[in-house]
Amino acid sequence: MDKNTFTDLLDRYISGNASAAEKRLLEEYYEQLLKHESVDRQDADDEALRRQMLDTILSAVHQAPVRSIAPTSTRRLWLRVTAAAAIIVVVAGASLFFLEKEKPASVRAVPIKAINASLLPGSTKAVLTLGNGSTVVLDSLGNGTFAKQGNSIITKSGGHLLYGAEKSGVGETTYNILVTPNGGQYHLTLADGTEVWLNALSSIRFPASFNAAVREVQITGEVYFEVAKNVSKPFHVKVNDMTLEVLGTHFNVMAYGDEAMINTTLLEGSVKVSGGKDDELLKPGQQSVYHKTSGSISVKKADTEKALAWKNGKFIFKGDDIRTIMRQISRWYDVKVSYAGQLPSRSYSGTISKYVDASEVLKILELVGIKFKIEGANIIVL
After folding, report:
1. Structural domain boundaries of the chain?
2. Tens of pLDDT along 108-117?
3. Helix (H, G, I), strand (E, B) or coil at 14
4. CATH (one of 2.160.10.10, 1.25.40.390, 2.60.120.1440, 2.30.30.60) for 123-306
């Protein structure tokens, strides 16, 4: 968004023709500027305050050449608004405004053309399959202890499922499966104390009690682990043809079927990644990339903030194309996405809360020229 477009947006705000999303962009950007600029809002009437707001924003915009930013000025602009609710980012010639909200309850849907109803964000929901094949829909189940499996009792508390030891000793190994649908996520505590978070469209198969010499689970989709340390029982994660070996560590695995790679991001401890003919030992702050086609593994410095954005309630895009963005939107909002016409070759960056309605996200993307057609729960990118 260049300065002329930004000024036009301010004019629409003054004339009362700006949309709700555009008003929020300006007002939240102004609020962030107040944290960095000497602006006095006391003893000012509404009209004076609005004029002060617009003058402050205009001054900030004209101080930074938004369309042709050199690397040093890009960094300066980013630092000025990096904690802002409205973030200006320039990537591959395309600018994006993204909104970030910390409190879901304060967010209202902003309808865009062709949307008749809000596409709501996901929530804590999952289905648990017990050892006998029976299923439990957790989001419709009340809190409390509801089942026994192996040596464990199972308790639900909100969006958290806890396996606690009822008795000691070695018994029959019973496997359970936890599955999150599109638009769902869940938190699980395994019998050994390992904490597990499942993103949308993910699953984990695990023993109700860890009786074997190796603690082994199988996953699909995207899962974050905080593994309880036990030197006598290594922890293995199986995902497709790849195996992760750990003792006690924090890491995220992104292994969706519609992605070309499986990314393992390590925050603490160490993880041995094995797949195909390759083995790699990760250090904290590193990410392994398993290429499904070739079966090879490469290691690079991790962007841990981006890798864990989903768990922290955000979408974070950094140099992503529109298909990558829309895959995440499809999973979280439980919508189907299709494409019509030639897509832009641009890449986009920015941050937005996962807890705004999909109409908010699409409206913001429309500000940079991406058009959509909505048919029920289907989004067509034009």
Report:
1. 3-119+313-381, 123-306
2. 333 344 343 4
3. helix
4. 2.60.120.1440
Give me 282's structure tokens: 């990760």
Span 3-119+313-381 CATH architecture: 3-Layer(bab) Sandwich (3.55)
Rounded to whole angstroms, the Cα distance separating 101 from 91 reads 22
Give tens-digit pLDDT for 70-127. Answer: 333 333 333 333 333 333 333 333 444 444 444 333 333 333 443 434 689 999 999 9
Q: Are 226 and 271 in contact (CB under 8 A)?
A: no
Torsion angle of C-alpha atoms 52, 47, 98, 265, degrees rounded to 10: 60
Tokens representing residue 13 in the block:
């705000």
Q: Cβ atoms within 10 A of the Cβ of 352, count?
A: 23
Which residue type occupies 334? Answer: D
Measure the CA angle with vertex 116, ends 112 and 122; round to 5°: 85
* Parallel, antiparallel or unpaired: strands 378-381 and 336-339: parallel
pTM: 0.74
Both tokens assigned to 115: 């949307």
User: Do 204 and 237 touch, CB atoms closer than 8 A?
Assistant: no
